Amino acid sequence: MNGMTIGVIAVAVVLIVDVVLLLGLVTMKTVNRRRAQSYKLRRAGYVATLSRRLASSAAADPIEARAAADDAFLDAVIDLRNIVTGHEIETLAGIVDGLGLARRQEARLRSRFPLGRRLRAAVSLAEIGDETTATVLIEHLSDREPEIRIQCARGLGRIQHTAAIDAILERFDVEEPWVRARFADTMVGFGAKATWPLVAYIRVNLRPRDNEGVVEAIRVLGVIGDREVGPTLSGVLRVASDPEVRIAAIEALGVVGGPLAIKPLKATFRSTDWRLRAKSATSLAQIGDPSVNSLLARGLEDANWWVRRNSAAALAALPGGADLLLDAVGSDDLFARDAAGEALADCGALAGAREREEAGLTNAEDRVLLAHMTGQVLA
Amino acid sequence: MREIKRVLVADDSDTVTTVLVTALELEGYEVETAVNGLEAYEKGLTGDYDLVILDQLMPGLLGLEVIDRWREEGCQISTIMLSGVDDDRTVVGSFESGAVDFIRKPFRIPELLARVRQRVQG
Fold first, then answer.
1. Residues of chain B contacting A87 with CB distance shorter than 8 Å
2. Among A108, A131, A331, B117, which is 20 to 30 Å from A199 by CA?
3. Which are the contacts of A28, defined by CB distance < 8 A and separation ≥ 6?
4. pLDDT the model gives residue A185
């Protein structure tokens, strides 16, 4: 066999392999397209059947038992659950129960693989699960797959399974940040029911450092906004040394508010850590008590830009605070003047002064503000 | 006067459309569908409907825009707005645009049918 023959054979082999691969690819694409079309048709059929069942109790179209094994049926049920409410949800729950849909998904979730199926089972249970599925969802809060853990927490939140609160909280310390954040969303969904478990968690787990779970728990308390936790957060500020924990507590206190929150926030406003001072200014503004105005006015002269900015913004939001900002605009401190001017511009005071200027109605304060903003020096 | 009342259902979700069409047909209505705002607008101009159930968030034209365009064309169609967004702007905007009713998603089918009956017969 000479070299040319070998070359021809090699080219022929390559061509044959290419053709086989191309045919394989075309076949796969055709099969997938047909599968997708079939799925779409089945799903539409199931939606129609279920719709008749929901619209009229007399329309008792039979739902075949094999539908329970069909993902198209499961998706149709999930879609409908998000569209209808009231008695219709009970009807759907009855169908789910009758066909053993949840049990089937539980079995899939408990299987070792494939991941796609397990994940789909977790998502489905998060949507159609009820109290009877809580046990399996709690079991899989420690699943090896993060997305499955997230879906299980979501499902427990949706069914408001209060007993799951502690189980979810236990994961706060060990989870990766993005998973913990999703768990925190679930905790927020529990509302006031989660308040005291969160407080207990914070008390038990607060350490000198590495407090990621505690910080998340404090943030959740802030979002839930239950005023009962004010003393707990104040206590955290007194004993915690971790600045991340203290910042989270300051932010939460601003939301939870109440007169008891002012004293600890005034103390942190005097902290040597500028981050605490800046956050405290914002939280004091959120509480809305003008008794802190003079303290915040001192923040305009702070060495840190963020503290000056947040103090000025806080004063702009508090009753009577704008007067102090106008005083600062006329002061000798350049930094205080800039912070106050910016806040007055943001809150609309500058626009008001300009309107009065155009109408020929400026007062002394307007003139000071306008002069500062245009860089003029008043005589 | 027609015996059978005609209803146009305009929603970009297949599932919502199927639920509404099924429920309305079981009640004896003749139902047509539109899958986007533009199709709803065009069908509304030519379709002689007794009622339109119009989703707010649709591709092409928003539900409120569809009503506004009908009004500009002098086309008065009794319209029920359907939306998952129920902030003041959407609800008040719907009535100000001339919608006769507003239904929030998720909805109860018997309640929706009762509202449709009231608007079609009233």
1. 108, 110
2. A131
3. none
4. 96
- Please give the Cα distance from A375 to A378 (Å, whole number): 10
Q: pLDDT band for A379, please (50, 70, 90 cuts).
A: very low
Mean pLDDT of A305-329: 94
| pLDDT for A61 | 74
Mutate to test the interface with B, among A79, A84, A90 (most CBs of B within 10 A): A84
**Subunit contact A56:B26, Cβ cutoff 8 A:** yes
Q: Residue B109 is encoded by which pair of tokens? A: 């089918």
Residues of A in contact with B19 (CB under 8 A): 47, 51, 54-55, 80, 83-84
What is the mean pLDDT of the segment spanning B56-70? 94
Burial of A15: CB neighbours in 10 Å, binned 0-12, 13-18, 19+: exposed
Beta carbons of A153 and A193 less than 8 angstroms apart: no
Closest B-chain CA to A55: B23
How big is the A-B interface in CB pairs under 8 Å? Answer: 52
In this complex, do B13 and A83 lie within 8 Å of one another by their Cβ atoms? Answer: yes
Interface contact A82-B26, CB threshold 8 A = no
Q: Per-residue confidence at B89, pLDDT binned at 50, 70, 90?
A: confident
pLDDT confidence of residue A62: 81
Q: Extract the tokens encoding B115.
A: 């509202």
Instruction: Give the burial class of B2: count Cβ atoms within 10 A of its Cβ; 0-12 exposed, 13-18 middle, 19 or more buried.
Output: exposed
Displacement of CA A68 from its chain's centroid (Å) = 34
Question: Which residues are paired to A26 by β-bridges?
Answer: none
Label residues A16-30 b or e (16+ Cβ within 10 Å = b). eeeeeeeeeeeeeee
CB contact under 8 A, A47 and B26: no
> Which residues in chain A have their CB less than 8 angstroms from residue B33's CB?
none
Cβ–Cβ below 8 Å for A82 and B108:
no
pLDDT in tens, A131-181: 999 999 999 999 999 999 999 999 999 999 999 999 999 999 999 999 999
Supply the DSSP string of A214-234, one letter for each residue.
Answer: HHHHHHHHHHHT-GGGHHHHH
* Contacts by residues B84-90 (CB-CB < 8 Å, ≥ 24 positions apart): B84/B57, B85/B56, B85/B57, B90/B56, B90/B64
Average pLDDT along chain B = 93
Superfamily holding B6-121: Response regulator (3.40.50.2300)
Give residue A378's pLDDT: 52
Global pTM reads 0.81
Beta-carbon separation of B15 and A55 below 8 A:
no
CB-CB under 8 Å, A47 with B18: yes
